[in-house]
Amino acid sequence: MLLTPRSRCMPRISRHHKAALLASAVSVCLLAAAAPAEPLGVGDRLYPYLGNPGYDVASYDLSFTYPGRNDKPLEAVTTIDARTTADLERINLDFAHGTVRSVEVDGHPADFTSAGEDLVVTPDHPLSEGSWTRITVRHTSDPVPAKDQDGGWVRTSDGLAMANQADAAHLVFPCNDHPSDKAMFTFHVTAPNAYTVVANGLPAGADRGASTTTWTYRTQHPMATELAQVSIGRSAVVHHDGPDGLAVRDVVPAADQKALDPWLAKTPDQIAWMESKVGKFPFETYGVLMAQASTGFELETQTLSLFEKNLFTEPAYPKWYVESVMVHELSHQWFGDSVSPRTWSDVWLNEGHATWYEALYAEEKAHRPMEDRMKLAYASSDRWREAGGPPALPKAPAPGQKIGIFRPNIYDGAALVLYALRQEIGRQAFERLERVWVRVHRDSTATTADFAQLASTISGRDLSGFFKAWLYGEKTPPMPGHPDWKSQAPASSTGPQGHAAHDRAGAKGRGAGANARPAGSGAHGNAGGVGSRSAR
Q1: Where do the domains of the chain lie?
Q2: Which of 26, 126, 211, 240 is 20 to 30 A off residue 12, Cα-Cα?
Q3: Using CA atoms in the order 244, 309, 530, 296, what is the torsion angle rounded to 10 degrees?
């Protein structure tokens, strides 16, 4: 990132002025060098401090040493390989919860300081645009949250897991913490031999010593920082064969494996169902991580979705409801993980689609009509828009408000947009759009404008007016094909919480996104009288 402007070479000057001008130039350079470090961001409307300009990360190599207790900091080393996109004299990384021991840039010691939630690094030599650089940070990674910080490490009853969405990966490791900069990941985790470690991607070895084992995992597709996952626990890893030989591996508390096996056996068929809707699974493996923790949400961490174990053991949750939650996180592997949002204002593309397929699965497998759910959503839509903003223009998270940006407007409110789109262009064009979308943008990022443009191309119609009204309007437009549907007027500026098949009434914290919706509506609306869950 471009922080401090570089001094330029001065033209040749007459000898009698050289000494004075040279002294002046030295003075200017000293002032520039002494300019205070500043926190930077990529200008995201909702999280302006996230990400950093000036470089593009190609890969992260993360090493953690777990001490056998989840209330003590882990020793860690983060190595970042990046290509500069501007001349840089300083490099800003997002990192806000740990002690930095040392920093090296291209093998040389570098100065560093903190500015806001940034780690600002000054290498011993300027970096020119278009060059490759390696940044190595030795630091701690603290699983105990600081005051007013949520997300990052999740402490389980037997170890740790991660929940970094939307803005909490930098509470775990130094990074460019914005989904627009996806990268490859390698994880090395050392833990006592009694523990099992699983991370995103595929295993690449386990080096067992007398008392500890170092586990290595690598991704085969780029990943956003918010989707990183590391599970450390007294766990069993259960293997199944998915469609076309896809490796399915689930991670569960070892003591509960037998009770959880019936749920684990459902994943291969759910993957096959999703493939029938949108095409081949986009990654090298998949599985669910059932954590012994009270989070209030589920999370689509890439190739290893995070769930509360309680979701599967609480008898009040109907089976159809639990399965729809599983499908919500599974669908995110296409929508949100493989195709990631370019900005956080595009998050409706993630959550709207995951909610859509969750509801479609409930319709096809449990006879819960999609139309009924969408009619309920339509009735609440104006209230959601007032409380949280239109689906593609969500209101920024308020300071101290745990719900963050994960409000009903980007869940059922966004799924309602997809329902209206299917009504508008017809089922055949809509289903083709879904398949083409995930194929064209696989392993990359995309925007709301990209989706609108593709929809117009596939339908053969200019849909710009449709999307402007449905995605950015303060009021919900009339529903195509259902002129009798009515949206209730907002009762106040703080309308009620929304609804989602997996959302709890409680909100997700910062860095642990939330989509709280009330019991009594949505796919899980009458789930045995239990509260709704949060799923990102």
Answers
A1: 40-146+169-226, 342-488
A2: 126
A3: -100
Return all residues near 263 (Cβ < 8 A) that are at least 6 apart: 288, 312, 322, 326
The β-bridge relationship of strands 74-84 and 132-141 is: antiparallel
pLDDT > 80? residue 536: no
Among residues 226, 232, 207, 228, which one has the least CA distance to residue 218? Answer: 228
What SS3 state is found at 461?
coil
Token pair recorded at residue 517? 């919706």
How many whole angstroms separate alpha carbon 323 and alpha carbon 319? Answer: 6
CB atoms within 10 A of CB 534: 28
Ramachandran bin of 522, using left for φ above 0, alpha for ψ from -120 to 50, beta for the remaining angles: left
Instruction: Check: CB of residue 172 under 8 Å from CB of residue 152.
Output: yes
**440-459 residue pLDDT tens:** 999 999 999 999 999 999 99
My answer on whether omega of the bond before 166 falls inside 30° of 0, hence cis, is yes
Beta partners for residue 80, in sequence order: 60, 135
* Cβ partners under 8 Å of residue 356, min gap 6: 331, 415, 418, 419
Contact call for residues 524 and 328 (beta carbons, < 8 A): no
Beta strands in 66-131 (DSSP E): 74-84, 91-94, 100-105, 108-109, 111-115, 118-122
E strand intervals along 35-90: 55-65, 74-84
Task: Give the SS3 label for residue 479.
Answer: strand
User: Closest Cα to residue 333, out of 275, 254, 397?
Assistant: 275
CA atoms within 13 A on the CB side of 489: 1
Each residue of 99-137: pLDDT tens digit? 999 999 999 999 999 999 999 999 999 999 999 999 999
Q: Is 390 helix (H, G, I), strand (E, B) or coil?
A: coil
Is-contact 118 95, C-beta < 8 A?
yes
**Residue by residue, what is the 3-state secondary structure of 297-347?**
EEECCCCCEEEECHHHHCCCCCHHHHHHHHHHHHHCCCECCCEEECCHHHC
**What gap in Å lies between CA 469 and CA 393, rounded to an integer?**
12
pLDDT tens-digit readout, 378-417? 999 999 999 999 999 999 987 766 668 999 999 999 999 9
Give yes or no for a contact between 523 and 324, defined as CB atoms under 8 angstroms apart: yes
**What is the SS3 assignment for 160?**
strand
Tokens of 418: 């997809």
CATH class of 40-146+169-226: mainly beta
**Contact at 8 Å (CB) between 277 and 304?**
no
Please give the structure tokens belonging to residue 192: 């006592």
Q: How far apart are the first and last CA of the chain?
A: 30
Q: Is domain 342-488 classified as CATH 1.20.1050.10?
A: no
